């Protein structure tokens, strides 16, 4: 058996496959691959195969076509070492994989449907519908990681995304009586064809126990960690194919297993639970994404999860060097380790432990390797999101790591003393150990001290990071701090999510836009072309009709596709201010009831998003929105004028329907609170106009699409700070705004809660008392901007022009540009094209 592959993949010929049909991308080859997997992999015959069987068979057939690229990419790095990006993230919200892999391979929808018709399936959508969404992430953090992994592969930069293979996602959301109900997300129940278990590459991880000191054979003082419990991390690899390239990177997701799964002695004496206790305890580590941290056990489990996947990942990186005969001292030349927020920040202490305790390097060498390898992305300015761990809990779980953190802190604070002699306040603020109240380990401080770069995720956020959150760190190390504005992949969020728009762009811009979004500026040449603008509007209307059908099937609410689709979909949180949007809906409702609806656009207001299970106010906001929807949708006066919809279980699959169909994007967070946002980018790419504050990436979106194509409102971050300083009194605002006062009065009377005046009392007290996110401060200006929206909608040609310019000018927000920024500024990583000379299409 021979191969013409220059890297000697040892794959059979012809085409590097035992059966050349496994390489084919035409309909016959796809059909043959499905038939083979139905029979040999699934044990089914075509006449009895269900849609799920056909989904699995098609997925396996597509995965076959990834394998040469996948193995060639792995072998290329082994044969010719090249710097690889290790992206450590607690979440990877990768979304459904089948359609994405079809697109990136170049198997068109038409080809797939030709194969499926032989199984009496007319539409690919019938098969895509049964695919479960991987429960590997929750929101923007995980979706960003997924976009970045796809762009890394498309740009042919070697990368591995490291995370946890959660057995259950965060939860599926049901709405019952207006309330969010959480049910288990059993996304793996039908099998997942996209993962490749690698049990031979398992890693051991320790917890608890004690440390002891000893002197090695050379007379050096050392410490040894003796854990009291262990878990095994089993890697499961998920291929991540780039768009029409040979590079196929991977996610390496760790599943937890027990070192000893079954205690025969306990079983034989009748202790049946005790027989599997260790197995159950260990496997809990990878059971669920974000266990509730409202209890001590929940917080303990979160810390264990973070250490588990970080330790496995770093061990894996170090092992890869050993397997290739590369000295451990060269780690920074072969790996760049990116911490996606503070969840993986324990990597600093764990890498130091591995280098010092397991590979016997001295402190200075280990610290040099660590600081040259690790970079840190900060995703939030909210104090509650900057992780801190109770010192007692941390010591009980990771005693050796705490010793190392103390030493890192001691050396760092010595530098601070030299720079700021006698300034104890700065030392307390910058210390990794928080001494105020109960002592705690500040993970953001640890990451910042060790990282060679610290970046924010939008220009405003990065500026606030340096000016407000970490000014002293930025003063000590100004060269560390930089910005990389977030981005989203156009392959999923335009090409896959919006095929109608994608075809239009192919025709008028050329198909190259999908890998070079800046080419979309060519659309500006058509901004005054009446016929083209009508075509643009018709394309939008076609996807709105599709979403209207989905809304009716899911909620029973009939909506008019020709109405303005006003959309706010994102995690439910007070700072994102869904309740501000809800208040303006009530105001529009009152205007219609009072005969003051002249000039008001017929509007369908769509909400979606999940609230954290323990976040009462966020869950009350969901109930509030559903109460408003129930009242408005039942009122005959609202017919043809106003509809309100809350779409349950917002996820990637649902987002792919919502973004293309949206006319107005609600980005109304309190200025200075949203780090960046990525939903705002997806809306704008698909031609939605934004109504928003100067927060996060809204600032850069407005600059690029043009202020005239963006509905701006609200106080700036500086004005918000001035309100805080001068004493903010929301009740005084209510007294000056009759429409707001009437809306709040109706809420208090129970108009939107079936006469229950107490149901929304906590929300009213929050708004009129403290109003921590300045909802009422921005209310009047928000209404003014909404009136501008109404006026703009009346001129549909002008609206379509504004929509076109939003799409044309959002090339900057491609994740390809973000990854290029990371590679050039932070990672110093370069593309490494994979050459395959055998017959792969």
UniProtKB/TrEMBL annotation:
<dbReference type="InterPro" id="IPR000811">
    <property type="entry name" value="Glyco_trans_35"/>
</dbReference>
<comment type="similarity">
    <text>Belongs to the glycogen phosphorylase family.</text>
</comment>
<keyword id="KW-0328">Glycosyltransferase</keyword>
<dbReference type="GO" id="GO:0008184">
    <property type="term" value="F:glycogen phosphorylase activity"/>
</dbReference>
<protein>
    <recommendedName>
        <fullName>Alpha-1,4 glucan phosphorylase</fullName>
        <ecNumber>2.4.1.1</ecNumber>
    </recommendedName>
</protein>
<keyword id="KW-0663">Pyridoxal phosphate</keyword>
<comment type="function">
    <text>Phosphorylase is an important allosteric enzyme in carbohydrate metabolism. Enzymes from different sources differ in their regulatory mechanisms and in their natural substrates. However, all known phosphorylases share catalytic and structural properties.</text>
</comment>
<dbReference type="Pfam" id="PF00343">
    <property type="entry name" value="Phosphorylase"/>
</dbReference>
<keyword id="KW-0021">Allosteric enzyme</keyword>
<dbReference type="GO" id="GO:0030170">
    <property type="term" value="F:pyridoxal phosphate binding"/>
</dbReference>
<dbReference type="GO" id="GO:0005737">
    <property type="term" value="C:cytoplasm"/>
</dbReference>
<keyword id="KW-0963">Cytoplasm</keyword>
<dbReference type="InterPro" id="IPR035090">
    <property type="entry name" value="Pyridoxal_P_attach_site"/>
</dbReference>
<comment type="function">
    <text>Allosteric enzyme that catalyzes the rate-limiting step in glycogen catabolism, the phosphorolytic cleavage of glycogen to produce glucose-1-phosphate, and plays a central role in maintaining cellular and organismal glucose homeostasis.</text>
</comment>
<feature type="modified residue" description="N6-(pyridoxal phosphate)lysine">
    <location>
        <position position="682"/>
    </location>
</feature>
<keyword id="KW-0808">Transferase</keyword>
<dbReference type="GO" id="GO:0005980">
    <property type="term" value="P:glycogen catabolic process"/>
</dbReference>
<keyword id="KW-0119">Carbohydrate metabolism</keyword>
<dbReference type="InterPro" id="IPR011833">
    <property type="entry name" value="Glycg_phsphrylas"/>
</dbReference>
């Amino acid at each position: 058996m021979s191969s013409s592959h220059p890297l000697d993949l040892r794959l059979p010929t012809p085409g590097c496959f035992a059966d050349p049909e496994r390489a084919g991308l035409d309909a016959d080859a796809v059909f043959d691959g499905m038939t083979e997997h139905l029979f040999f992999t699934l044990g089914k015959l075509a006449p009895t195969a269900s849609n799920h069987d056909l989904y699995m068979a098609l997925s396996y057939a597509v995965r076959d076509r990834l394998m040469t690229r996948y193995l060639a990419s792995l072998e290329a790095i082994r044969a010719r070492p090249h710097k690889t990006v290790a992206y450590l993230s607690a979440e990877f919200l990768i979304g459904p994989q089948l359609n994405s892999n079809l697109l990136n391979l170049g198997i068109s929808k038409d080809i797939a449907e030709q194969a499926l018709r032989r199984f009496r399936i007319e539409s690919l959508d019938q098969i895509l519908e049964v695919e479960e969404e991987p429960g590997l992430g929750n929101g923007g953090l995980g979706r960003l990681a997924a976009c970045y992994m796809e762009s890394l592969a498309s740009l042919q930069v070697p990368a591995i995304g490291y995370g946890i293979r959660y057995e259950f996602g965060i939860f599926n959301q049901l709405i019952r009586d207006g309330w969010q109900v959480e049910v288990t997300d059993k996304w793996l129940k039908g099998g997942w064809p996209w993962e490749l278990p690698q049990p031979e590459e398992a890693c051991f991880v320790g917890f608890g126990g004690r440390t002891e000191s000893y002197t090695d054979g050379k007379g050096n003082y050392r410490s040894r960690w003796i854990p009291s419990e262990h878990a095994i991390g089993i890697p499961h690899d998920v291929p991540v194919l780039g768009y029409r390239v040979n590079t196929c990177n991977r996610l390496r997701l760790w599943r937890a297993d027990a070192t000893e799964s079954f205690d025969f002695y306990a079983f034989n004496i009748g202790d049946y639970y005790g027989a599997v206790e260790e197995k159950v305890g260990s496997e809990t580590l990878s059971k669920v994404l974000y266990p509730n941290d409202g209890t001590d056990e929940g917080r303990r489990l979160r810390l264990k999860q973070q250490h588990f996947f970080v330790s496995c990942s770093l061990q894996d990186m170090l092992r890869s060097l050993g397997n290739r005969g590369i000295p451990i001292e060269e780690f920074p030349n072969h790996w760049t380790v990116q911490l996606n927020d503070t969840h993986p920040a324990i990597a600093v202490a764990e890498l130091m432990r591995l280098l010092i305790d397991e590979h016997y390097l001295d402190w200075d060498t280990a610290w040099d390797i660590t600081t040259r390898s690790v970079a840190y992305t900060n995703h939030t300015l909210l104090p509650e999101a900057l992780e801190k761990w109770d010192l007692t809990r941390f010591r009980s779980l990771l005693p050796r790591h705490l010793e190392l953190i103390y030493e890192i802190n001691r050396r760092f604070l010595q530098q601070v003393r030299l720079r700021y002699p006698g300034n104890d306040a700065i030392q307390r603020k910058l210390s990794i150990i928080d001494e105020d109240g109960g002592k705690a380990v500040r993970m953001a401080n640890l990451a910042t001290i060790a990282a060679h770069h610290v970046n924010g995720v939008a220009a405003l956020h990065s500026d606030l990071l340096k000016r407000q959150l970490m000014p002293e760190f930025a003063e000590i190390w100004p060269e560390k701090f930089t910005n990389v504005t977030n981005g989203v992949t156009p392959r999923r969020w335009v090409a896959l999510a919006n095929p109608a728009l994608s075809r239009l762009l192919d025709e008028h811009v050329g198909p190259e836009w999908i890998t070079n979004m800046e080419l979309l500026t060519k659309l500006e040449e058509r901004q005054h072309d009446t016929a083209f603008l009508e075509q643009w509007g018709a394309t939008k209307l076609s996807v709105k009709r599709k979403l209207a059908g989905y809304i009716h099937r899911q909620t029973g609410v009939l909506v008019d596709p020709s109405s303005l689709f006003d959309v706010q979909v994102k995690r439910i949180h007070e700072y994102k201010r869904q309740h501000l949007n809800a208040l303006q809906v009530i105001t529009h409702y009152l205007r219609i009831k009072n005969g003051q609806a002249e000039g008001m656009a017929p509007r369908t207001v769509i909400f979606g998003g999940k609230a954290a299970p323990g976040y009462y106010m966020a869950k009350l906001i969901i109930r509030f929105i559903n109460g408003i929807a129930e009242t408005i949708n039942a009122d005959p006066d609202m017919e043809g004028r106003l509809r309100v919809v809350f779409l349950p279980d917002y996820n990637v699959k649902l987002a792919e329907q919502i973004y293309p169909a949206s006319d107005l994007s609600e980005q109304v967070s309190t200025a200075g609170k949203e780090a960046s946002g990525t939903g705002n980018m997806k809306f704008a790419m698909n031609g939605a106009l934004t109504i928003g504050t100067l927060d996060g990436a809204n600032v850069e979106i407005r600059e690029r699409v043009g202020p005239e194509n963006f509905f701006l409102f609200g106080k700036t971050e500086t004005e918000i700070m001035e309100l805080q300083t001068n004493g903010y009194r929301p009740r005084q605002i209510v007294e000056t705004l009759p429409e707001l006062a009437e809306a709040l009065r109706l809420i208090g009377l129970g108009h939107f809660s079936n006469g229950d005046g107490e149901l929304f009392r906590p929300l009213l007290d929050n708004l009129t008392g403290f109003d921590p996110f300045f909802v009422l401060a921005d209310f009047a200006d928000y209404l003014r901007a909404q009136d501008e929206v109404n006026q703009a909608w009346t001129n549909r040609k002008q609206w379509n022009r504004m929509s076109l310019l939003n799409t044309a000018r959002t090339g900057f927000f491609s994740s390809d540009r973000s990854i290029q920024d990371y590679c050039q500024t932070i990672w110093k990583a370069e593309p490494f094209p994979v050459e395959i000379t055998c017959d792969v299409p």
